[in-house]
Amino acid sequence: MKNNTIAGILNKIKWSGEDLRSYAIVVVDRVSPTGIKEIPLSNNIAIKKDRLVVNEKVVIPIHRVVAVKKDGEVIWSRKTV
Q1: How far separated are the first and last CA of the chain, in Å rounded?
Q2: Has residue 67 been placed in a domain?
Q3: What single string gives the DSSP state of each residue in the chain?
Q4: Residues 6-31: tens digit of each pLDDT
Q5: In which band, very low, low, confident or very high, does the pLDDT at 3 lie, cut at 50, 70 and 90?
Q6: How big is the chain by its Cα radius of gyration, in Å?
Q7: Is there a domain that residue 1 lies in?
Q8: What is the C-alpha separation between 41 and 62, in angstroms, rounded?
Q9: Shortest CA distance to 1 belongs to which of 45, 60, 67, 48?
Q10: Is residue 25 part of a domain?
Q11: Which residues pair with 40 in a beta bridge?
Q12: Domain count, the chain
C-alpha cells in the first residue's frame, strides 16, 4: 500500500506508536446537518484499501475522508476541499 494514499497515511499513524487520541478523521456525512463528521482515530477503526470500518459496524468509503487532524489542526486534506 502506498504511503501517499489516505489508507497509507492512516496506517502509518496507526502503527507509529503515537497516541491515537490526538488524531481524528473528517468525513463527508450525508446525515449530519453540517455535512461533515469528525471521528476520533482512537475509535476501533479498521483501515482497508477502499474503506474504513468503525467499531466493526459502520462502513465509510475511503473517498469520503476529506481531512486528518492532529490535536485539532489539519495535517492532511484532499486537494478538492
Answers
A1: 24
A2: yes
A3: --TTSHHHHHHHHHTS-S-GGGEEEEEE-SSSTTSEEEEETTS-EEE-SSEEEETTTEEEEGGGEEEEEETTEEEEE-TT-
A4: 888 998 998 998 899 999 999 999 88
A5: low
A6: 12
A7: no
A8: 14
A9: 48
A10: yes
A11: 24
A12: 1
Angle at 80 between CA 20 and CA 35, to 5 degrees: 65
Beta bridge mates, 74: 69
- At 80, list the grid cell: 478538492
CA 21 to chain centre: 13
Cell output for 23: 488524531
Supply the range of the domain harboring residue 41.
6-77
Q: Per DSSP, what are the bridge partners of residue 23?
A: 70
In the structure grid, which three cell numbers stand for residue 49, read together? 484499501
